[in-house]
Amino acid sequence: MKKLLIIATNVLILLALVVNTNAQGPKGKDFGFGLIMGDPLGLTIKIWTSNENAFDFYLGSSYFGNIRVGGDYLWHFDAFNSNMVKMYAGIGGVVGFGTGHGIWYKENKDKFYYWDDNSMGIGARAILGINFIPRRTPLEIFVEFGPLVGLSPNYGVNMDGAIGIRFYP
Predict the structure, then answer these.
(1) What is the pTM of this model?
(2) DSSP secondary structure letters along the chain
(3) CATH number for 123
């Protein structure tokens, strides 16, 4: 999986070198939908509110729960002083339903532990990502990662990481 992620990231960087990036969605569109693969794995939508800000939402499966629903508020910025690659950062919330499992860090025991729970989970996450918007296509390709903080039923920290693609009709 690690090799696949490295290869996919390199392909996306090479793609970004030959395309131009718009300040908002492809071809000036404000709404896109697509697939997100990783944690979470499922469907995603993005709604641009300005040239730099957007909301993204997702529905899928995750270690946080069988079904996971979440959303983030994103700030896009030009970290590389280039029109080819844009970065973004955001904060959001997550709700997981059903059986969840994963590896979390628990402070009071100062060790990693495995959890398996049949309840609903609530959490918050911070996200950092890179998006590529090929100039003559209605697509947005993105890679993102960041911490997920479980707030209920147990406190813990996990990492989210995903790659995805959105289509802007």
Answers:
(1) 0.74
(2) -HHHHHHHHHHHHHHHHTS---SSSGGG-SEEEEEEEEESEEEEEEEESSSSEEEEEEEEEETTEEEEEEEEEEEEE-TTSSSS-EEEEEEEEEEEES-EEEEEEEGGGTEEEEEEESS-EEEEEEEEEEEE--TTSSEEEEEEEEEEEEEESS-EEEEEEEEEEEE--
(3) 2.40.160.20
- pLDDT tens by residue, the chain, 169 residues: 444 445 444 444 443 343 334 446 777 889 999 999 998 899 999 999 988 899 999 999 876 557 889 999 999 988 887 666 789 999 999 988 766 555 444 455 554 444 455 567 788 999 999 999 887 889 999 999 999 888 877 777 888 899 999 999 9
- Domain housing 21: 2-167
| Number of independent structural domains in the chain | 1
